[in-house]
Fold this protein.
Amino acid sequence: MLFFLVVTSSANAEWYSDTQAIMGTEVSLTFWHEDKNLAARALADTMAEMRRIDRQLSPYKEDSELSIVNRQAAKSPQRLSRELLYLVDKSLYFSGISEGAFDITFASLGWFYNYREKKQPSEGQRSSLLPAVNYQLLKLDKSDGSLFYQHENIRIDLGGIAKGYAVDRAVNLLSALGVTQATVSAGGDSRVLGDKFGKQWLIGIKNPRGSKGEAAIVLPLSNTAVSTSGDYERYFIDEASGERVHHILNPRTGKPTRSVASVTVLGPQGADTDPLSTSVFVLGVERGLALINKLDNFDCIIIDLAGKVHYSQGLMPPNS
Ligand code: ADP
Ligand code: MG
């Protein structure tokens, strides 16, 4: 009987895959499983977890924890869930090491951009809201898990870290259900678990100015998180100036950064590679590479505005 079971279950083993629109982007997963029933559960649970994270952290849902905190935290310190505490704390860490390039209070001003409707804040709005873009005005009290905004116009947004984190959660969930080979992606944030029976997963980095789906570089990878930030994901061209108005803001100026076209960061976890890709995007080639080169376990590939590719030290051949 046992023999029979083993035979049927391995005859059932196959790749499973699903894609759904969640968190304002496309969430995809592919994994191998020996057991059909467990595989169905893994698919359902993982997508449900992505939706839960979206409900909790979306700035567009009025009853998300994030929206509630944004409405209350300038009035009194707000107790955060463990999850939000973890993400705000991590965000503040990346603000520190990126010298403020990564800053979740970008939203104090970023909230007034609407890429679909091609709208951006007026100069008056920009100068009056810019003082509220400053992570140092966030008082996170880790002893009681509360957050206080020391400026009435502050809003936070986790768009630069939440998808990487969600991908980590998905991989943890799949692993707990016995999966050892998988890829999970949420927009520009992916993680690969294991490999494909001895072959590495192939992850493409888009050509920032190419046609949809055209890869500039293909990376063979296993057991890695990969996050890409690009100026082509969410943007419009301002008719008056002809400028590309995209979704990564320089917290110093409150305007989209104009330093590079795309940044891909590789490392162990999405909750780190995601904010790092946004950070390097704002820092530009030189300061961005300097940041990645001084961290252990992270690498990056930058495509600049002229299309030139820059690699961190860990990706360069020896003697170069
Ligand atoms: P994507 O959302 O395309 O994966 P990123 O990971 O770079 O790209 O995240 C960009 C998002 O990060 C923006 O849509 C916005 O929500 C948020 N963001 C923009 N500028 C900053 C910044 N300077 N610091 C932190 N988060 C930012
Ligand atoms: Mg990012």
